[in-house]
Amino acid sequence: MKNLTLSSRAPGVAQVTMSRPAVFNAFDEAMIAELETAFTQLAADPGVRVIVLAGEGRHFSAGADLQWMQRASTASREWNLDDARRFAGMLACIESCPKPTVARVQGAALGGGVGLVCACDIAVAADNASFAVSEARFGILPSVIGPYVVNAVGKRHAKRLALTTTRIPAAEALAIGLVQQVVALEALDTALDAAIAELLAGGPNAQGEIKQLFAQLEVGPITEEVRELTAQTISRVRGTAEAREGFAAFLGKRPPNWIAQ
């Protein structure tokens, strides 16, 4: 791939690295297509348990490539709609990936770069990271990334970030839930590998079920339909081979068979 580097970080762990450091890993139509292809392929690979999304160089991602946005500003409504749908499809591909996804964030994450962080399940950031939902500065809005930002930090924080375009430091991003862990830059990979180790300890089918179930849950009343959904899900999963192995391993005081020995 021209704009991405795919590598194996550890057994069962794939890393997708955005590789346009000269433009701070800003993405355009080509990178969007490559990201969707990469996550689709890795999701279907039985040897992959966890996917890491990273950015090469000093910064995670500056968001949308400004030359791409300038082209969009002079293109037809139909071109813009098709283009936006491709961007939306790429983010949905990351968010709906059946395997755990982890964003490794250093330096700046701006605009769509924030959307990429929010589309991942977990984000581990260096203490030099900063985040800005910056679209309004260019006379546009964070439309496609908006649902992911709202889901990550809640509506009021998301509106403040989008309306003010303020750049927040890693500590504030941690406080509002945009990232889950902040460490010194030199400790970023150690912290990331510790988070990955925790993910690899869980059953892969169970993790896929968690993502599928939680995608259907909303903050609010726990209705009869929600209770039935959760009852149906656990009753089905309890009878799987993975569940039987998990309980047998625990009672037998041994690692389950999904943990590499």
Quick rundown:
With 261 residues, the protein is of the alpha/beta class.
Cα distance spanning the termini: 33 Å
Strand adjacency order, main sheet: 1-2-3-4-6-9
Low-confidence stretches: none
H/E order of the elements? Answer: EEHEHHEEHEEHHEHEHHHH
- Report the CATH C-level class of the largest domain: Alpha Beta
Strand proportion, as a percent range, falls in: 15-25%
Q: Radius of gyration, rounded?
A: 19 Å
Fraction of helical residues: 40-55%
Shape designation: globular
**Can you tell me the CATH topology of the largest domain?**
2-enoyl-CoA Hydratase, Chain A, domain 1
As for the number of domains, it is: 2
What report would you give on this structure?
Strand 1 (4-10) and strand 2 form a beta hairpin. This protein is α/β, with parallel strands linked by helices. It has 2 domains: 4-199, 2-enoyl-CoA Hydratase, Chain A, domain 1; 203-251. 49% of the residues lie in helices and 16% in strands.
Question: How are the elements arranged and paired?
Answer:
Elements: E1 4-10, E2 13-18, H1 29-44, E3 50-55, H2 66-74, H3 77-95, E4 101-105, E5 108-110, H4 112-119, E6 122-126, E7 130-132, H5 146-153, H6 155-164, E8 167-169, H7 170-176, E9 181-183, H8 188-201, H9 204-214, H10 224-237, H11 241-251
Parallel strand pairs: 2-3, 3-4, 4-6, 5-7, 6-9
Antiparallel strand pairs: 1-2, 7-8
